Structure prediction request, 294 residues.
Amino acid sequence: MHKFTEEKNWEGNAEALAKHAKSWMRLKGIGDLSFEPNERLVRDYVARGILSKPERKGKEAIFGFEQLAQFLACRAMIEDGWPLVKIAEDFGVSSLSDVLNLVPGEDAGNNALELIADFKADSMPSASEITDSAIMYSNKYSTSYSASERSEGRSFLRRSRDSYETRADIKDVLRRLGSDFGNVIREDFTAYQLASWLVLLIDKDKARDITRQDAEDIGRGITAALLNRSSLTKADRMTYTKQMKELSSLDEQIRGKQYELKRIEGTREQLETEVEQRRNLLADLEERLRKSKE
Prediction:
């Protein structure tokens, strides 16, 4: 299974970012399958401050890994109920490591730390740039918020972020435990202790409204279960668990192959675009040459 941090050298325009983000959203299980990221949404997120500003290469805006991570984290947080304005505030004071923590299945472990080190080595700002940025940041907040208000705001965002990160980790933890649930299920039970060695647990709501027929059926069901000699043995359960893990592994391999296919398709589309651009450039040069001869 490919790790998201392997995308550290990815770059492309707004349209390419939308397509690439869509592929990763499918792999990460982020959002509804009907959701289609597009160029307009990418530019809207830049305007809102959710995505950092892209690099300019000529007339084209080029996005990279950082914006891809921000986009995925943003969509995951939207699914968790975060409003866009709060996401923008959080990203405004977040490092790349912080953002990676918000992408499902990613964390600021060794891979992420190595990635961040690469980013620092590739684009270390000068002393003057650091000073100018610090002055701009200071002026921006000194005119709008007091120190206590900024501290309270950051504290709230940190608590909210910690809560989100904990919930985002649940799916991965349950998967590693071999659970077939996508989330923790909380149930309230009423316990009937019939003996020191016998406790009967029944759903709280069901216990409150139980009928005589229900009680008799429960008794017959327990009798049948205790006397059933063909129930699953421990070895059967282990075999079943092993099969489920193998199925899960095959599912991950399929998703990996799907990602590879989408990546290849994306590369093909990019190459086709470059070929078309070169054809247009060649046609333009030929037209200029023809006019110059005339």
In short: Residues 120-146 have pLDDT under 50 and may be disordered.
